Amino acid sequence: MTASGGGWLGQSIERVEDANLLTGRGRYIDDLAVRTGTLHAAILRSPHAHARIRSIDVAAARTAPGVGAVLTGAEVTALSSSLAVGVRAPIQSWPIAVDRVRYVGEPIAVVVATDRYLAEDALELIEVEYEPLPALVDPRDALASTELFLHDGLKSNVASDRSFRYGDPEAAFAKAARKISVSIHYPRNSCTPIETYGVVAEYDANEDAYDVLANFMGPFTMHPVMARSLKVPGNRFRLRTPPDSGGSFGVKQGVFPYIVLMALAARVAGKPVKWVEDRLEHLAASVSATNRMTTLDAAVESDGRVVALAWDQVEDVGAHIRAPEPATLYRMQGNLTGAYAIRHVAVRNRVVLTNKTPTGLNRGFGGPQVYYALERLMQRVAVELNLDPLEVIRRNLVPAGAFPYRTATGGLLDSGNYQQAVDTAVQDGGLAELQARRDQARAEGRLYGIGLTAAVEPSVSNMGYVTAVLTPEERRKAGPKNGAQATATIAVDPSGSVTVHIASAPQGQGHRTVAAQIVADALGLKPSDVRVVTDLDTARDAWSIASGNYSSRFAAAVGGAVHLAAMQIKGKLARGAAAQLNVPTDEIEFANGKIGAKGNPDNAIAFGRLAAASHWSPGVVPDGAQALRETVFWSPPQLEAPGDLDETNSSLCHGFIFDFCGVEVDRVTGALRIDKYVTMHDCGTILHPGMVAGQVTGGFAHALGAAVYEEFAYAPDGAFLSGTFADYLLPTTMEVPAPVILHMESPSPFTPLGAKGVGEGNCMSTPVCIANAVADALGLDAIDLPLTPGKLAQFTHPKEQES
Amino acid sequence: MPRLTADRHHRVRFTLNGRPVEGDAEPRMLLTDFLRHVLGQTGTHVGCEHGVCGACTVEIDGAPARACLMLAVQADGMTLRTVEGLAPEPGRLSVLQDAFRRHHALQCGFCTPGILMSLDIYLRGHASPTEAEVRDFLSGHLCRCTGYVPVVAAALDAAAKLREAAGDA
After folding, report:
1. B139 touches chain A (CB under 8 A)
2. Whole-prediction pTM value?
């Protein structure tokens, strides 16, 4: 595999990350050496979903062997302030229970000791006296409650209630031929990375400064949140990430309350403190996607065209509003009309608190909940009007040639040709053959169904979208929030070799490889000539609030910033080369490791020799062309703050997805079998086909788990029922089929390389695609996830006769 | 089995990747913690500590075993292999590891050492597995990144390459 003058992008080159990971030489947080004398933390957690804490007796634990310190809510509230809450409501959010526990697994006390075994021994010696309170588990009960409130400052359990109106939805509903509705309850789940949370924290009393290493993934909007909670300016809260991280999928955003907690533990103990979460802690109390109750109404013409939508969403964020929540509810604000040209939209968004684990980032982030309602609705439109579901989708798609297309709610769909993508998928994916297979199966008396889904996949989040939870007046007072700063730094060292740093905090996606491809293309080098560093140190590296690895922003935003930084240093190198080679700058080319005059291979200098010149002989480099180190910050201008009419361009890029699948339900057991799954993606320019396939296949597996197997389930009293991997079932090799993946490429005009995000799409499209197929197979009007055999068997077996 | 005392450290000796190793462990110390934190062999990962995820799988006396379900003292006198012992030499990958790299059969790499250990043992005894057999065998490993498709492809490819090499020999 060679590429002389660029051309590395678009190739599935082997990943530079892999050799170390395959030989046991990864550097994950628990693999790194810590300072001598570091203590190890263990956390006592609440067995109750809701209770007042009458007393905590830690005296015996404090004097237990090896124990260095014990922290409870008393120490935490004395040394820090509440974590910032993203809504205007009189509520606090602490990383440990203060006076009350509000979910099973909430931290009560932290013990630090010379090793983890001794710390866990000491936990057993802590005596807590609880006064149990009734638990509010179902969001409907929390909404209805007039006497029992999770947070005393609120006189209800509703932390936010906002209504939006775009276009003229009332008139559209009044005029439309039909109103068609769905009501759904999207369950809780999580992408559960195989590596759990880890934190190593240290406090310097002389400088009043914290230094923390954590497998945090961003967004670094959390950095000022944590610094403020620790009552230090940002420059006294140094946050670092390890070189490797064992998966995240959004989940490791949720480590941030534990970063604060361990920073305080280190301060109290006077020694560095290390904490590695165990799996039971992770399942019960790390973070969860939101569960959501949605009623979605559509005003529909008799030909299946949807002219208006009315969303009523009740978002269950659990016991605390952890920043950046209620972002899950607002991440899709700009694309609430999906892939469709629907001009009138009404929205009511409520955020409700319940006695469950607080929610946060999770792959798909708001997309699964929104598309489950929207695409169930589109299927119902087809069924109720007796139309072909594919035809209903086609009639509503945003027209080709309309891009960039401003949606009713303020999103700006950057590029695409949805009709062509659908046609290609129907053809190349073999929909007609699948329909014949369904007919055959049904003729044999089997329960077989086909589901379809169209979706736009948002990526590169606008840092301002969550302020749509505030009223325009509240936003004016708070000041505008917008944009999404991506950054990359490229440096040339005295030997003339190139190093790149990016603040993308990867957790296994292969960012180092793709960044090297980008730079190799720009500078006429090989990817192996370029080294890329991705561990992040907020005290030394370029970063901003949007840094991190979420909203599928790497290829579109960070990759673009890498390209811009490379072009910036290239421009300077070209000027230096022009002076040395005696040709105009625009006749300089970079190829095959050389910088030379176009069309004259003899008039060239080795890249490394010229690149080192600014170190060894700056005097001969033209003014302003010193090529040493370039840092680029890039924020797309399209990501404006929400407007006075609440129009919200929540994301920069919008890929297109069209999925269809055939499923069969076993009449006897209710078990679901995926016969065939086809997924068409338009994610703009593809930088590394192998990694795109990895993102699609991995996202599909997550979505299949969410659709069929996984649920964070709670008993009516708030007891957590999914506390081990034997209870919370992840799909294995036996359950995940290979999806048929199709592509087309409509480059984004808004990103430097034309790329869009692709990491989350199937988490949005696949659960509802499978549910639509099951609804088709069983003739159901309504069905909620997960589609377990037990649930489906209710529909495949006739009701038992009472004797 | 020697008699052990709960709060005392005991000397544990075994063969790890062809070399004798030893260290002190309380009877309650898990084999995973001993490998990682006493011996400094951090390639074996801890994903669940209750025997479901398979990330900590190592080879003990020729068979795959979950190091999180075993005490360090139980390994005394045995022969262990871990992911650090798979590559033929530094800077080179085994046939199986190389197949994983070519097929993009890993992303974060956290579950990968366990999968590699299981497959390395399996392919020694099953030279020509079918896809269904590989899927059945790997069902004891959880991976959240890849969706398993490239893992299965890499395993089948490695099996073919190993057969080829055996035929050539």
Report:
1. yes
2. 0.98
